[in-house]
Task: structure prediction
Amino acid sequence: MESETTPLLSQSADADVYDRFSPGRKRVIVAVIALAEIIAPFASGSFVPCVPEVAADLNTTGTVIKQVIVFENSEIYI
Result:
């Protein structure tokens, strides 16, 4: 019978994966990824004022231009 001092979760060989980076380096990685995620909506929002002009130049509708912008941003998130 196991005693109460036995850990509930055993240490597996895969546990070393989580110790690969120092806590400070992990914070930097998370900060860079968070910053990249924040920039994407601002980038798509910068195109909104020029949608009518771009649509007129390309002989299409604003809806098509907006769909292209959304599609491009969805690639960023994937």
